[in-house]
Amino acid sequence: MMATRRxxxxxxxxxxxxxxxxxxxxxxxxxxxxxxxxxxxxxYGPANPNDTKNNxxxxxxxxxxxxxxxxxxxxxxxxxxxxxxxxxxxxxxxxAGIEAKDPRQEAGYDEDVVEAAGLGYCELLHFKCADTRTCxxxxxxxxxxxxxxxxx
Length: 152
Ligand code: SF4
Description:
This protein has 152 residues and is mainly alpha-helical.
């Protein structure tokens, strides 16, 4: 009985130890590769979500694809996508990855650092995405946070 209990405790410890941050949170090249794939194949964007003046074409295209209004399409963002992970554990992974950046690669991280407050991890396309962007694979029901995980 004691041995069984000890094994169970060891199993739990092993499970806790094996969690590793997704590679895109700690590897710039992997993140950019996945992000570029999302740009090219899933219509990830808009490139600059804050540039509302020049984004109308982007949202119009999304609305046409979704057979809905521009206003509704604009409400479907990474920030409320079910694939968008913003648990405290994931945010720690993202933060640790940015802090550990290689100075030689600094230019590639600048945008991520600027957008840090809105970053999360896309479980579908495996990269760090910004809550104000979207893509063709958007899923209703997000984001995934500590609170939503608790509620489950
Ligand atoms: S699947 Fe969701 S979280 Fe991932 S890029 Fe698309 S909209 Fe953003």
